[in-house]
Amino acid sequence: MENVIIIGTGCAGYTAAIYTGRANLTPLMLSGSQPGGQLTTTTEVENFPGFPEGIEGPELMMKMQTQAEKFGARIEYSQVEKVTKTDAGHFDVLLEGGNTLQAKTVIVATGASPKHLGLPNEKSLIGHGLTSCATCDGAFYRNVPVAVIGGGDSACEEASFLTRFASTVYLVHRREELRASKIMADRALANPKIKPIWNSTISAYLIDEKGEVRAATIKNLVTGEESELELKCVFVAIGHVPNAKFLGDLVDKDENGYIIQTQGTLTKTQGLFAAGDVADHVYRQAITAAGQGCAAALEAERYLAH
Ligand code: NAP
Predict the structure, then answer these.
(1) Distance 182 CA to ligand 1 centre (A)
(2) pLDDT for residue 132
(3) Does 280 contact ligand 1 (Cβ within 6 A)?
(4) Which CATH number fits domain 122-236: 3.40.1190.20, 3.50.50.60, 3.40.50.360, 1.10.3720.10?
(5) Ligand 1 pocket check for 256: Cβ under 6 Å
(6) What pLDDT is recorded for position 74?
(7) pLDDT of residue 234
(8) Residue 126: its pLDDT value, please?
(9) Which of 39, 139, 141, 186 qualifies as a FRET site for 300, CA 20 to 30 Å off?
(10) For a pocket test of ligand 1, which of 11, 154, 235 has the largest count of ligand atoms closer than 8 A to its C-beta?
(11) pLDDT under 50 in the chain at which residues?
């Protein structure tokens, strides 16, 4: 029986592992489908304290992993199907493939996954001219036009990054004002390679004979007009869905699926704690996720001590 199983290996998960590791609880971490979490798909992180020159997202996560392992955290690369609480008071954690692990406490730090527009052929186009990760796929689109959809910090960051490769980056946003923080919005709009398309969305992806995206239909949401825009890739940056389905009724969720914390990182189930973007739709920052990971670890320690 494990003392603590931490589900998720993003900022919240690794911070929880560092703290529970240093408390001699030898935490077991389950990585999920995106080891390292969302920061592995970002470029430079300029706002994580302690790195005045900035640090690349993947490098920051590698450092957190090294730090967690130094204090005894073990990482298993597997996906959780379901968590249940037994009558005896511990948790059964069912993994994809059928194995079940047992734990006295569980820290859920599974973050959130990128949203898509919901167009018919969208899922099948992922990797064929449709992606949510500029860092992963940007370099494949050199000297060709691409589009980013969204108006938040992610969209601005992705658009700025993509100007290193693409000939033109269309920034397609459904309103005429960006949601992004002023510094990121100003940076994106000042870049001559970024061309905003306001009050618009993508209403269809158009495909070539090889099944790759060759253009998109852009719909102006004010006039209803549709036009074809030639591009080779669409980077979707319209927000995220929290990864909390596998918890069943062990937790309450808000209307967008985020876990409701009853107090701090506590949930309605004793011994089950939630930290980071899976429960935080307000701040959603690396540093706030890390802070919640720390809090969840301290709560788990306290729970085990009693
Ligand atoms: P976000 O702030 O929720 O922005 C999502 C954007 O997508 C909004 O502009 C939204 O439009 C648009 N959108 C949502 N659903 C849409 C749909 N169905 N069709 C078309 N457009 C749609 O998400 P985010 O940019 O991923 O940022 C999430 C959090 O991470 C934020 O707190 C952000 O500050 C943070 N972040 C920080 C950094 C950084 O500091 N380096 C980088 C990335 C993200 P509306 O504006 O009309 O709602």
Answers:
(1) 13
(2) 87
(3) no
(4) 3.50.50.60
(5) no
(6) 98
(7) 97
(8) 86
(9) 39
(10) 154
(11) none
